[in-house]
Write a structure and sequence with these properties.
Strand content: 5-15%
CATH architecture of the largest domain: 3-Layer(aba) Sandwich
Number of helices: 10
Largest sheet: 6 strands, parallel
């Protein structure tokens, strides 16, 4: 898996690069700002870009804007966006515009190499990965018109873990149930949300998008 990393802090870039290389990924480029990132993307055509939201010159949302440009110009490149602070609106903005092959994690998560590599791998495979903190916030909020009203509390719990980017096996371990039980819940979720199987759609991603928009 080939990765480009963008962060204005050299030590952060090198730390992410070191973790990814140790896990077997190939870091093909690094960038300190959005324009350099776009040049590296066009030059290397990586599988995934790991991008800090706040980069020069304004240190606001340049990384997010660049992530959206990457998904528009290079749809084959997955994007994992990192943020030092919890910004649910940023996550929603990114996922709503381009629900497949995107992820949003708090920076504190990336120092666990397994979490970082798992997120990068899942984004590469076409899934949506959203930080558990945001999932917890969305899971607990009240909805006047809840698109998930048709699913059971257990199915909603499973869907929240799917939104974190967990596999069925990982969900089974988290909930202390069998993987077959999780598969049954996921199948029920797809059916209740009217997500039919199609070669043109990733049902797990569509289910996550329904959860996030609810």
């Amino acid at each position: 898996m080939r990765v480009v990393i963008a962060d204005d802090a050299v030590l952060i870039r090198e730390g992410i690069a070191s973790l990814l290389r140790a896990s077997g990924a190939e870091v093909v480029g690094q960038a300190g700002d959005a324009e350099e990132l776009m040049r590296e993307i066009r030059r290397h055509q990586p599988d995934v870009a790991v991008v800090d939201i706040k980069m020069p010159p304004t240190l606001t949302d340049e990384g997010l804007v660049a992530a959206q440009r990457i998904r528009e110009e290079q749809p084959g490149v997955g994007v994992l966006v990192l943020s030092q602070y919890l910004e649910a609106t940023y996550a929603m903005r990114l996922v709503s515009d381009h629900p497949e092959k995107v992820g949003y994690l708090l920076k504190e998560r990336i120092f666990n190499g397994e979490v970082l590599l798992d997120a990068v791998q899942r984004v590469h495979e076409g899934e949506t990965v959203v930080d558990p903190t945001i999932i917890s916030m969305l899971f607990g909020r009240r909805r006047r018109l809840d698109p998930l009203a048709v699913v059971s509390p257990r199915e909603r719990e499973v869907l929240a873990l799917v939104a974190e980017g967990l596999s069925n096996k990982a969900i089974a371990s988290r909930l202390t149930v069998t993987e077959r039980t999780v598969e049954a819940h996921v199948t029920q979720i797809f059916a209740k949300l009217h997500l039919s199987e199609s070669p043109d759609a990733h049902r797990r991603v569509l289910a996550v998008l329904t959860f996030l928009r609810g």
